[in-house]
Fold this protein.
Amino acid sequence: MVDSPSGSEHDAEAMVNALLTASRLLVAVSARSLAAVEEALTLPQFRMLVALHTRGPLSLSLLAAELDVQPSTAMRMIDRLVVAEMVTREASPTDRRTSSISLTGKGRATVVQATERRRTEIARIVDAMPPAQRHDLIKALQAFTEAGSEPSARPPASLHLGW
């Protein structure tokens, strides 16, 4: 006879499955929003643009650390984004041995437009939910992001953009 999972194990498994499904939906929303604005841009490249938009100019090593990728991977992404005129790479004003990576106007506009599209689509999905469940979702997502040490997104007026 196989032991059935206890109530809390079953709840945890159901939660993991629900979050995996929700994350697929959110990635799909992000991909569609990005493709509508800039077809050739990948989600990892977009994450880099968002990091630069949020944090300002960064060195290669800080940008790689922010994205949790190897510096060589970050450098290849930067090279592609320079060619696409989304970022610039200049010698750091404080240390000529390092580069400072910055968003261009085109890169900034791409981040803002894709994020606005994503926000609109997420709002449409939330509007389709029963009102009573919206409040529960807010509480659950806040607890989830706190448990994962993710900082809270700021209101849209501040232009804090999650990837």
Notes: Helices lie at 7-37, 43-55, 60-67, 71-83, 105-127, 131-147.
